[in-house]
Input
Amino acid sequence: MISSKQEEYLLARAYLPEHIVTLMGIVSKGEPFFIDDCLVFNGDNWTILIGYPLEEPFTPEGLEAKIEKIRRVFGPEYLWFISPAPLRTVSEHCRERETDQYFTLDISSGPINNRLRCLAENAAKVLTVERNPSFCADNLELVEELTGRSEMKPRVKALYQAMPEYLSRSKTALVLNARDGQGRLAAFQVIDLAGRDFLAYILGAYSQVHYVPHASDLLFFEMTKISREYDKQTINLGIGVNEGIRRFKRKWGGREFLGYEFYEYHYPASRTFFLFDQLRRIF
Output
């Protein structure tokens, strides 16, 4: 488990959305631990390692040592981990791998350029932005619309589906809604203010049923205003995901700042050996 002091330490040094314990704990349904300067979540037969150290420098050798320690401590059948750089060698246990980049937006660099401001202001002529602490029924409808029209990886779909519980339990998360004159939801974004120095963009969606041009631009502009209100230096925009999302983030001044390497390892016999070892120690 993680103590309140450890969570304070984490949030004071956090630089990724995955460092936010409430978010990851609710999405993963795992129990959080802090091991060797990294955040870990453990479940029944699986473990998630956030391989981005809070203070110590990252090295592939250090990550490999953490993986071996996690196998000894938890004995997971499935291990999912992310890191800023690839491992030196990929194990035969690797079942899935993904490479991407995190994007960041520097709020302290100056005001939003006029072209982007105009896009947001034009959208504001027909849309109203509201800040809510929780999901509404039409947020859920828009999630259903999005997941129905898009091919999503299971873990991305699970992230969207976890939003109602996450927002209901988090004290630092907000959903930004853009509504038209009839109150219909055109787009939304979920953000989190838990990190001391940055605002975390968690996810967003726009409606094709109640489509309004540049609704997402209006919400991005609102997000920059909130960042300044809360004295955040940067906005972590998450990973690129696909070229369309990358273009949108770059348009708003987002730049790649950190590598993202995702791995899924499967150790079919690990759980059996782990339980046997525990029994041997007991008896």
Residues 279-283 have pLDDT under 50 and may be disordered.
